[in-house]
Design goal:
alpha+beta, three-stranded antiparallel sheet, SH3 type barrels, 10 strands
């Protein structure tokens, strides 16, 4: 490890002397007061703007880039007002030939922060926005005070050599900055490609998801390679770590890899696709999304089951819409022996045929299935166009059957229990508690 300690100490001593000289000057406190007053005014202006401007409807008819720019500008009203006040104060004190170094630094920092806020307004990831904003503001501050080159030289003076690869803090920082930008750009491009694929009517939903995943994965790998090449990291220098890292990754990420490969298999064989109604174990619902690691199954009651892709490959899956969305609805019911079974079958078929959800192309059918101690059992079947209509159709037809049975005087059997007492009558207690 190489480090020029004398240069670092000299830099810290010079910085301490400059700060001490600035703090002893009365002009410093005048400028500090102006900075604090401008900050208070800028805060009041921002509160007033937020109270009067509706951000959701602001520039709603404008093109998307201008709309984002305008909303970012209004959202940064405090920074804009502070920067304007600092520029005006700096100009006035400069015209009066008064010292205004602090005001100059504050004005430049405020303008830099305003530019950073506007530029990062198009980034949706909050973490990336914070990292980019803090890093850019720090670099701007060092550049404004004229210490950026010194800091860069200090970061580049410390190095570690690993397997022929020279790593310095500057290389790590540059790699992080380039990698974040490359990943953000890859995400933008992949989202655009996914949107275009979703609009293609020639591709099935499974192929659309598969192509979108392959494009996203390829762009991420390409972004990492570009970032490493931009900072001078040779990929061959990492070969020494490939053996041990490969074994560790193999054990640590085997489930993730298994789910990823299973997801590709599901997309290729088209056994399930977005929109299918499936039953997996105790979970039933429609597939709302297919991700790299799992599928999302919406249950219809607000819940979503996140099921690993591997489970769909290794476990039994019921796909209600695999080849045909038409679904058979089974409605078992029973009647008493006083009813005519032929009339019951005809009445049930006519009742089911009146349902708006029942398919007219496949007429309902009713079968007498069993004679039991309680009565006769029947099975009414009809077809619906969508599996999601099964429960509503069953309830609708059963309510209509109840009304029809009431109208025709057909009884529905229910359990009857007889109690026989042997050995004489039981004593009956009177109100006073005596027995006869």
């Amino acid at each position: 490890m190489d480090m020029d300690t004398k240069d670092v100490l000299d830099f810290l001593h010079a910085a301490a002397r400059a700060v001490g000289a600035e703090l002893t000057s009365p002009w410093f406190y005048l400028q500090l007061g102006l900075v604090l007053a401008a900050a208070a005014i800028a805060f009041a202006v921002a509160c007033s703007v937020r109270a009067r401007v509706e951000m959701n409807s602001l520039a709603s008819n404008w093109p998307a880039p201008l709309r984002l720019f305008m909303r970012a500008l209004v959202g940064s009203a405090a920074a804009a007002a502070f920067a304007l006040l600092m520029v005006i104060s700096h100009a006035i004190m400069g015209a009066l030939t008064w010292p205004n170094y602090l005001l100059s630094v504050a004005a430049k920092l405020a303008l830099a922060w305003l530019v950073i806020r506007v530029i990062t307004s198009g980034i949706r990831n909050t973490f990336v926005v914070r990292v980019v904003s803090i890093g850019a503001l720090l670099a701007a501050a060092l550049s404004i005070v004229g210490k950026l080159n010194d800091v860069i030289a200090a970061l580049d003076s410390v190095s570690i050599t690993l397997a022929g690869l020279k790593l310095t803090p500057l290389v790590v920082v540059n790699f992080g900055v380039i990698l974040i930008f490359a990943l953000w750009l890859a995400n933008v491009v992949s989202n655009f490609a996914e949107g275009r694929l979703g609009q293609s009517s020639d591709l099935t939903p499974s192929i659309q998801v598969l192509l979108a995943k392959m494009i996203r994965l390829g762009l991420i790998i390409f972004a990492v390679v570009i970032a490493m090449g931009a900072v001078g990291i040779n990929l061959s220098a990492l070969a020494i770590f490939s053996g041990a890292a490969g074994v560790g990754i193999g054990f640590g990420l085997q489930k993730i890899v298994a789910n990823f490969i299973s997801g590709i298999i599901l997309l290729v064989d088209k056994s399930v696709k977005p929109g299918d109604l499936v039953t997996i174990g105790d979970s039933s619902g429609r597939i709302s999304a297919m991700k790299t690691r799992y599928i999302s199954v919406a249950a219809g009651d607000g819940r979503e089951f996140l099921i690993p892709n591997e489970d769909l490959v290794t476990q039994k899956v019921t796909n209600w819409t695999y080849t045909d969305k038409n679904t058979l609805v089974r409605i078992p019911f029973a009647t008493s022996y006083e009813a005519d079974p032929r009339m019951v079958c005809k009445l049930a078929i006519d009742t089911a045929a009146l349902s708006a959800r029942a398919l007219k192309s496949r007429p309902p059918n009713c079968l007498l299935t069993e004679f039991t101690d309680a009565g006769m059992r029947f099975l009414l079947t009809c077809w619906v166009a969508d599996p999601g209509d099964m429960d509503p159709t069953r309830s609708e037809i059963m309510l209509a059957l109840w009304d029809a049975f009431k109208r025709e005087g057909i009884g529905v059997p229910y359990p009857v229990r007889e109690i026989r007492v042997r050995g004489g009558a039981l004593p009956v207690e009177t109100i006073e508690g005596t027995s006869n």
